[in-house]
Amino acid sequence: MKFVLCCLASCLTISATLLQAQPTPAPLTNSSGTNKSFDPAAATRAWLETVPAEKRVRSDAYFEGRYWFILWNFLLASAISIFLLASGLSARLRDFAERITRSKILQPALYAVPYVLIVYLLSFPLVVYSDFFREHAYGLANQHFGPWFGEQLIELALDLVVSGLLMMALYAVFRRAPRTWWLWGSGLGFLFLALQMLIAPVFIAPLFNTYKPLADRKISQPILAMASANQIPVQQVFEVDASRQSKRVSANVSGLFGTTRISLNDNLLQQCTLAEVRAVMAHEMGHYVLNHAFKLILYFSLFVAGAFAFSYLFFERAIRRWGPRWRVSGIADPAGLPLLVLLFSIYFFLLTPLANTAIRVTEREADAFGLNTAREADGFAKVALKLGAYRKLDPGPLEEMLFFDHPSGRARIRMAMDWKAADLPAGDAGGR
Questions:
Q1: Where do runs of H (alpha helix) occur along 15-144?
Q2: Is 377 contained in some domain?
Q3: Same domain, yes or no, for 244 and 349?
């Protein structure tokens, strides 16, 4: 069961379909060699023009197709919830749980097991198309169907465990606070988000990939030097075998309260220069130093509180009208879960631009931190171009506001060129 609570893990992911060397625009300087006549707008256009038109068309098509998946996922989730209610299947699942045990604590967990399985089966055709066939069609994935499906089953098992625990806690709140359940539910949402940030990097991520210390000191030492300068408490850098699944590169600084870990995947090591690696890692360190994990927990806790308040306004009204037909008695009845999920789906679908903006703002802050830390303006621009293999490089302003949870490639390159125009000492953007 997924309440659309998680948009927290932010990491710079870069496709390998543009991994061949990008031509670097000639520096725009005056005769003295300084940046006084450097034009950031012209330099940004020059960087963008290095991407062949056919690749721009392909990446635009890929990213614009994702706009429709926002709608399709919402419509599918809504249709499944309505089906479970209108068919009486949700009530029969509750009856099944009540026959198994008289414990009010365990009944929601027993309801959750068949509920999660049914939702998974009904959602699977869209998932396999969007996450497997489409990724392969655009050259972004490496994994064959068997291993991919195996990881889907691991995710399903995790969903079953987490959903059971969350349902027990959630419905305990609903039974004990029939009038203020939305407020206590919001607090539970906050705890769920915080625990996910703490547990996922250390205990969940290794279920899908192998983490090992990075052996190449020419790469690890500059990263650790940046970490030390910014008081990030780590002693080593981890390498992740992400090439088993994808052609994309990624990195992150994750964890809280002593679980902090710097990790970068093998695609990044194989396909990017040291300047680009430094640019990416400095960006990720920005998330840590600027406390973006805590900020995003706060932002999304407020969003979740809004979702519970929205549900409080409409749940009882819907039960008064359709409850007898659905055989749902009220908020403490597990059979009403599909209605709660439906209301959450509507709320978060409408909130999409605001949720994207919250993440995009933190990403822009991390970009600025990364430029000031790594001092690799050209390396940062090259990374932004590689991101353009699966994210539209030059969207319109409204399009970027509505659909982008990261700054566009154009916006990121312009930031790098503005930094360069300030004539600050910059690092070498050359090869490793």
A1: 40-48, 53-86, 89-100, 107-128, 134-137
A2: no
A3: no
Domain count, the chain: 2
Q: Do 61 and 181 have their domain in common?
A: yes
Angle, helices 377-387/409-421, rounded to nearest 10 degrees:
170
28 SS3 class: coil
- Please check whether residues 54 and 194 belong to one and the same domain: yes
**Which tokens in the block code for residue 301?**
């806790």
Provide the residue range defining the domain that includes 168.
49-200+292-354
DSSP state of 312: H
257 with 149, same domain: the answer is no
128 lies in some domain: yes
Closest CA to 266 of 302, 237, 286, 295: 237
Phi, psi dihedral angles at 27 (to 5 degrees): -65, 135
Same domain, 188 and 227: no
> What tens-digit pLDDT sequence spans the chain (432 residues)?
443 334 333 333 333 333 333 344 544 443 334 456 789 999 999 999 999 999 999 999 999 999 999 999 999 999 999 999 999 999 999 999 999 999 999 999 999 999 999 999 999 999 999 999 999 999 999 999 999 999 999 999 999 999 999 999 999 999 999 999 999 999 999 999 888 877 887 788 899 999 999 999 999 999 999 999 999 988 899 999 999 999 888 898 987 667 788 999 999 998 899 999 999 999 999 999 999 988 999 999 999 999 999 999 999 999 999 999 999 999 999 999 999 999 999 999 999 999 999 999 999 999 999 999 999 999 999 999 998 989 999 999 999 999 999 999 999 999 999 999 986 554 544 443
Nearest 10 degrees: Cα torsion 203, 205, 302, 4: -120
In a domain, 404, yes or no: no
Per-residue DSSP letter, 14: B
Question: Same structural domain for residues 157 and 300?
Answer: yes
Amino acid at 408: S
Q: Strands of 251-254's sheet, edge to edge?
A: 211-213, 237-240, 261-265, 251-254
